[in-house]
């Protein structure tokens, strides 16, 4: 992700590193801190393969070290960061 520019979409394939199999085609966007709602780096992955593909892509990203905000996570994080700065 070091080579990605903040705020740009990048088209590519999501590949399972253990098998080399293509999971789905994706659009990935990276928003670098502090210019995000939570003031943290944020990555969004858009795919079109349906719920099973979305789940597999999420599993692969978590296995690679990504951290999920969970339901409402980004909004909760942004609220607490805003509250702490007031």
Can you describe what's shown?
The protein is an alpha+beta fold. Helices cover 30% and strands 27% of the residues. The protein contains two helices and three strands, in the order E-E-E-H-H. The protein has helices at 51-63, 73-85, and strands spanning 9-15, 22-31, 42-47. A three-stranded antiparallel β-sheet has the order 1-2-3. Strand 1 (9-15) and strand 2 form a beta hairpin. The mean pLDDT is 83.
Please report which band the strand proportion falls in: under 5%, 5-15%, 15-25%, 25-35%, 35-45% or over 45%: 25-35%
The appropriate CATH architecture is: 2-Layer Sandwich
Please estimate the helix content.
25-40%
- Structural class, by secondary structure, is alpha+beta
The figure for the number of domains is 1
| Low-confidence runs of at least 5 consecutive residues | none
CATH H-tier superfamily: Probable tRNA modification gtpase trme, domain 1
**Overall average residue pLDDT:** 83
Number of strands: 3
Quick one: biggest sheet? Answer: 3 strands, antiparallel
Radius of gyration over all CA atoms, rounded: 14 Å
Shape field = globular
What's the helix count?
Answer: 2
CATH topology, which one?
Gyrase A, domain 2
CATH class bucket: Alpha Beta
* SSE sequence, one letter per element: EEEHH
Taking the alpha carbons of the first and last residues, their distance comes to 32 Å
Q: How are strands sequenced across the largest beta sheet?
A: 1-2-3
């Amino acid at each position: 992700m070091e080579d990605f520019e903040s705020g740009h979409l990048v088209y590519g394939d999501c590949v399972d590193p253990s098998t080399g199999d293509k999971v789905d085609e994706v659009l990935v966007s990276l928003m670098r801190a502090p210019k995000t709602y939570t003031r943290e780096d944020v990555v969004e992955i858009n795919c079109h393969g349906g719920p099973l593909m979305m789940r597999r892509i999420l599993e692969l990203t978590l296995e690679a070290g990504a951290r999920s905000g969970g339901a409402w996570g980004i909004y909760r994080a942004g609220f607490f960061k805003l509250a702490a700065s007031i």
